[in-house]
Write the structure tokens for this entry.
Amino acid sequence: MSPKRFLSLCMISVVFGLVGGCGGSTSTGPATYAVTATAGSNGTISPSGVSTVASGEVKSFTVTASNGYDIATVTGCGGSLSGSTYTTGAITGACTVTVSFSTSAAITDPTTGMVLLKVPGGTYIMGDTFGDGASNELPSHQVTVGEFYIGKYEVTQGQWQAVMGSNPSSFSACGADCPVETVNWSDIQTFITTLNQQSGKNYRLPTEAEWEYAARSGGQSQAYSGGSDINAVAWYAVNSGSTTHPVGQKQANGLGLYDMSGNVDELVSDWFALSYSATAQTNPTGPATGSLHTYRGGSWFEDPFYERASYRGAVIPGDPVYPTNRYPTIGFRLVAPVP
């Protein structure tokens, strides 16, 4: 074959990839594969999209949940999650990493450090189920509530101070971790409005139905919030020493909530009604109008009857002793919506 003829065949072979090159084969690198990363809503994975990874190598990704969400699952490419880092197994073919997110079991307010726990929704019998309550706790009736976040503790003096710049509490000597009290309905609404503006959240008072469902550990049959042993779960007249106490010192209930019986009474959002409706209800909010604000839970000052999870009290306008309705026995805790 002539040199010219050989050169032409060589060039054609190179152009069409028939041989590795003129005069012999050339070495090639390892195979590469496409690794695709996708994240559902409410979080991110980085890098996202398609990455090219050499055969036998691993690839790491950073997974970040949006505020109010947790990483639920990360799957694909034979990998494992450590903290916020997902690392694949050795790549041997094209594969996909998929991330999903779920609402957080707990959220922390960025302004006050207040911790709120997620309460799963459910159906329960609200009111006096033990037969030892007052007439305004009747008739017991079926109520369904949706999921919500509620304060792990009562709002504290320190949290109030951080938002409002002052501490109105009668028991200020108790300290920053003690529940704020000596605040009335209007004071609390101002606090909530100010906190929502500062934090960008949507806090509010719980409804009576939400409060009782949470106090009873998700609607369980409990005399007090957390069980039947009042001394284990509540600061009340017998053991309080006539003062409030730092939140969270008694036993938590089944949802991890503290002091829903005792320490301070807690205002809720409902107007007070003299009795319940017997009709089954979903997310009830109480009467449309009224003149008496409702509180629940009992306080450091009261006897066991008033510490029961089903007990209902009313703030009466024009009290001659506390004309502004700022009582050293009444505080509150907050709820927030689940996204």
